[in-house]
Amino acid sequence: MRQNVTFGQYYPTGSIIHRLDPRLKILLSVAMIVEVFLIQTYVGFAILGAYLLLTILLSKIPLTTLLKTVRGVLFLVLFTAICNLFLYNPVDAGNEYTWWIFRVSDASIDYAVRMALRLVMLVMSASMLTLVTTPIELTDGIESLLSPLKVFKFPTHDLALIMSIALRFVPTLMDETDKIMMAQKSRGADFESGGLISRAKALVPILIPLLVSAFRRAEELAEAMDSRCYNTTTARTRRKVFRIGYADVIAIMSNALLLLLIISANVIF
Amino acid sequence: MLDMEILSLTNVKYSYTSQTEVNEALKGVSFSVCEGEFVTILGKNGSGKSTLAKTLNGLIIPQEGEVRVYGVSTREADEDSKSHGTLLYDIRSKVGMVFQNPDNQMVAGVVEDDIAFGPENLGVEREEIERRIDWSLEAVGMAGYRKADPSRLSGGQKQRIAIAGALALNPRILVLDESTAMLDPMGRSEIMELLLRLNREEGITIILVTHYMEEALMSSRVIVMEDGRVRLDGVPREVFADREVLSRYSLSLPPILAIQDMLCEKGISLPISYDVDTLADHIVEVVGKRTVSRVDMPSATYTKTPIVDMKGVSFAYMPKTPFETKALKNINLTVRDGELLGIIGHTGSGKSTLIQHFNGLIKVQEGEMSVCGYPLHVKKPEYRALRREVGMVFQYPEHQLFAETVYEDVAFGPRNLAVPTQEIETRVREAIEMVGLDYDAIKDRSPFELSGGQKRRVAIAGVIAMRPRMLILDEPTAGLDPAGKRDILSLVLKLHQKCSPTIIIISHNMDEVADITDRIAVLKDGVVEAVDTVSAIFGDRDLVQRCRLELPMASRVALALKDRGLDIGYMPVRKSALTDTLVSICGGGL
Q: In b/e form, how buried is each residue of A83-100, taking b as 16+ CB within 10 angstroms?
């Protein structure tokens, strides 16, 4: 029955990238996103591209897997590029090429290509984070990064607990949905044909049992948590401690170098 | 050990109130438990067992009467917690609680995080928490699983993690509310062994709510609940001695005692024994050592036409990814038209994947198969037509009820088959009556307000109303009390005679399988290890060992007799067969 569903797209290879501190991975991904927008020159794109490629190679994730994530947003990339191609029209646009009602210029081609490159690199950087970090590590990382907010009475731990429970129940509820769907299919239910209304109606025999079960589970979970002394009175222990290792330091330094190179490329070229 | 009273209940009353009715769950319960006891609480569904369990750690505060844990009243502790006191958490860490569904009591996606949850809540120091994780994992025999993902463990392992989570609070009492009900026999015996060990070695007091009489036999004290009251309280042997009382409270006899009762009825009375070896000793004393020439069991008659035919069927989940798991490997299996076939095998052996092939819920990946004459390995199999012929009752089928009334729910299947409206009513009535419910009384009620056993029957009726030629039932008795189990089993036999001639049933209970099926298919790691008559399967010692099958009680007794020099000539699987044979041997010898 269990289909070993993994939530998100974590791709286990056990590489050095996978083993980096999750907080650092989150911060570095944010840094890469900022860097993508800082880039102004093609040399800059080449440098960032090389950096991305190096990360991918180190993570031992097949390039095709990463390209698949780009495929998901390909339409968006093309759409933005085409819009920019025809609509971007600055004063000093260089050579102009006209065909029927379409008119493009050197400047708009340049702009469209940059925009496409930016989007692709953006998606790749973000995907890398979820490919090399388990959802649990992400939760822990976010909790730790948000912990300074505790000063303002922000309930970081409760937030992390909510995220952790949600993640924990995703496979359980997916299995459950699967089972209910199969049971109703066995009773002749048809989810694939018919118009919009009849399809929506066909979902009722799935959604109601699923809701009933989710409530039952929530109630039981609450009792189990109560039984294990969950409360808001006592101060909770924070068990997770992250330690920064050599690899983490190298990752930080390499990213700092990347930033430096991108800025100097902007200045020089 | 001092007989120190650590838990006492005096006249505990509790009722649930909804808008429409008041349901008195506990009507005045009093008893006390001493340190080191192993108490099982028995009683049919709705007798108040679970409510009772929840009063023990203050999840439920009784409306009248008092529960005291180490002298502290749960009511006072509850009030104390409202003024930010910690008395209630003291009680909850002294009384660890484990529930029925292992999936619904885990908060984290990593074993160690889940175990740490309790001590973290209490603000226990970090190093101490690490020590407790190590210790409690060690105690439940799961030391290697610290970093594991709980959702990938077996039911028995998950339940052991849940126990470890309770142990991490350093409890003196462990309350388990039907924690073995959802497990397979192997998982159940894992948990029982663990509980006995914790009781013996760590001196932890155990209070186990269960439907399994065998588990009650292992404990030091049995409390029988009925209608919100304690009806019997004593050592297991005393409680089980009174057969009349047992049947009054809808309890079943443990199989070993049932065999002795049957022998007694047939004229062989023996001193009561509680384990197979003693029983075999007693029987040999009376019957004597002898070897009876091999008896050929008459084989059941079926038509030879296959209704399911599988050749070289293999199946993998998430094929061609890092997560690929092979669920079925090269399955060759024939189900004959008109037979009652049992499928057995441990959790994860591929049973569910196999039966999902039978009505086309899973597309054949490799190999050839046909069901009811429809080929399923072709490009576009006729699934809709197939599902008219093959009815499927999933595990816990009551979880799929959805309609506003019982009538509507049962009518769902026939409507999907485009059965004419006039006929639908006939079919719904017929199906509801077939499962033993009163059509006029129940048809307009909401399925959600029925009892557990009734819900299950309604769900089964929903499949029967489609009038399938072949019916598949996945563990139809799981989670029911003994009376509910008996009812469902006799329902299956009735359906076999009156409704759908071919029935396939998955079960973990070997006595159940032995009692109702003709043939069994044994699955192990996605491979069909054997398909044969019930007595041939359980008679094959090598197969039984290789697949780690539990034997039905009658077979276990027969084996013990053989070891003692009394060979009855064949392997009995049904209690009636064993006792009949013994009586005839005895009669022939005298």
A: ebbeebeeeebeeeeeee
